[in-house]
Amino acid sequence: MRTLSTPISKEDVASLKVGDQVVLVGRILCGRDAVLPKIVKMFENNDPELKKLNLEGAVIFHTAVSRAGIGPTSSNKVEIEDSIPKLSEAGVAMHLGKGALKMSTVEAMQEHSSCFGVTPPTTALFSFKSTSQKVLAFPEEGMEALYEVEVTGLPVIIAAVNGETMFGQ
């Protein structure tokens, strides 16, 4: 098992293979259907506020954050999957969630040196592995706001990287 610290470099992404097991340490962003399209609009509009989110080498976990815990949502929801190519272009190095992605999304991630990892749906584990949580943007979305979470040892299996996918497409 390999440990990756955030931010993740393009060289780290290039060295990954489908099926690799990694452990994440550091800052990850948490967002899903409500906020990811908003971040894409910020990128497309060259919004100066986007720099505050620091997306270069970032990890975005497709989840909401609540007192009940943190668990992955389906990454192939339209609002989420449609955001992946643009967020990869904006600098995001890894997307985390669950579910199969379209081959066009896998190819877009390859073009922008990004990857997709799946995580076990174990909310208690994620809560145990996070040391801090704070809202970064869109507080009006409640538990679906964009959060920054510090993690220590979050387990991930690489599901799509460098144009390859485990989903047999």
In short:
With 169 residues, this protein is of the alpha/beta class.
Structural summary, described in words:
The chain is an alpha/beta fold. Helix content is 24%, strand content 34%. It is built from six helices and ten strands. The chain has helices at 10-15, 36-44, 78-81, 84-89, 103-111, 123-129; strands spanning 2-5, 21-31, 59-62, 65-66, 69-70, 94-97, 115-118, 130-137, 146-161, 164-165. Strands 2-3-6-7-9 form a five-stranded mixed β-barrel. The chain has a two-stranded antiparallel sheet with strand order 4-5. β9 (146-161) and β10 form a beta hairpin. The radius of gyration is 14 Å and the shape is globular. The two termini are 26 Å apart. The mean pLDDT is 92.
Mean model confidence by pLDDT: 92
First-to-last CA distance: 26 Å
Q: How much of the sequence is in beta strands?
A: 25-35%
Outline the biggest β-sheet. 5 strands, mixed, barrel
Structural class, from helix and strand content? alpha/beta
| β-strand number | 10
Q: Helical element count?
A: 6
- The portion of residues assigned to helices is 10-25%
Key features of this structure:
single chain; 169 residues; alpha/beta; 5-stranded mixed barrel; two-stranded antiparallel ribbon; 6 helices; 10 strands; 24% helix; 34% strand
What is the strand and helix layout of this fold?
Elements (H helix, E strand, L loop, with lengths): L1 E4 L4 H6 L5 E11 L4 H9 L14 E4 L2 E2 L2 E2 L7 H4 L2 H6 L4 E4 L5 H9 L3 E4 L4 H7 E8 L8 E16 L2 E2 L4
